[in-house]
Amino acid sequence: MIRLTRVELRRLVSRRLTVIGVAALLLITGVLLFATWNNSKPLSAAEQRNAQVNFEQAQKDWQLNGEQYKKDCEQGWQSQPDPKPKLEEYCRLTPPSLDQFGKPQVKFTEVMPDLLLGSSYLLAFAAFVIGASFVGAEFSSGSISNWLTFEPRRLRVYGSKLVAAATGMLPVAAVALAILLAGTYLIVNAMGSTAGTTGKVWGDLAGTAGRAVVMAAAAGALGGIFALLLRHTAAAVGVAMGYLVLVEGVFGSFLAKAQPWLVKLNFDAWIRHDTTYYVDNCRSVPDGGYSCESIEKTLTFEHGAWYLGIAVVVLIALGAGVFHRRDIT
């Protein structure tokens, strides 16, 4: 099994699409760092002067009309239908401050979690395509039958291909995320703020990156399984994209209460170690109207881990069963 896996890894690394996919990942990582640098740039001197002028005008307006604004807001709150929101939530009126004008300062502790989440999607997609291409090409060309002549034990062949597709993505994902973490920190440290980046923050970011690496490895193996089941790379990628667009994108937006059973939300819960979503609670009100309230709910890390883990195991078992019994010519 180990010898077979080494052979499959060499074949995976030598494939042109693998090289192109890895190069594209590194290029996109560079684009993300450039976008971070561009967003972190401070305002020009002229823009800062303009922001200062606007702030001073807003400050004078608040001194003249602030009390009236509060009274108007309280009157508007009293005319709201029951159940009313809290007054302090409805009327969030505070004196203007300089940081409300001009470009806000980029903070490492705020941008890095979102960058890691976005990168985890990119890595999972790239790993899926590379894994699907790795296995699908053998079925399209017919070379899988020659390979089974050399090694007739199908489950060993199946296992070695999945392990190669998964482990082959581990160093790629780890390097891409390490570059993104280090590059973002250096850029924001020079142009923004890295205050509050404590040891706990680094530990949380490292945990997020580690889970993204594991997800990339799983996506590589799943790409191989889909290609094995459908016998073609394009079919595997098409089915996956169709599911994401139709089920997750279209039906998922209508079936709000089914969100905990969709892949995307469980993916987020796994990567971010808990995530939140909103469900509308609509009801008739005493005055004959109809009111809807968005309720925030939490999908736990444990739910995401069990959901994704069971899905991966079921698909691996399905792929093994099909590959073991299917006629291959």
From TrEMBL:
Molecular function GO labels: ABC-type transporter activity
Any coiled-coil regions, as ranges: none
UniProt key word Membrane: yes
Keywords: Membrane, Transmembrane, Transmembrane helix
The keyword Transmembrane helix is assigned to this record: yes
GO CC terms: plasma membrane
Membrane-spanning parts: 12-35, 121-141, 162-188, 208-230, 237-256, 304-323
PANTHER family: INTEGRAL MEMBRANE PROTEIN-RELATED, MEMBRANE PROTEIN
Protein name, per record: ABC transporter permease subunit
Lineage, opening ranks: Bacteria, Bacillati, Actinomycetota, Actinomycetes, Propionibacteriales
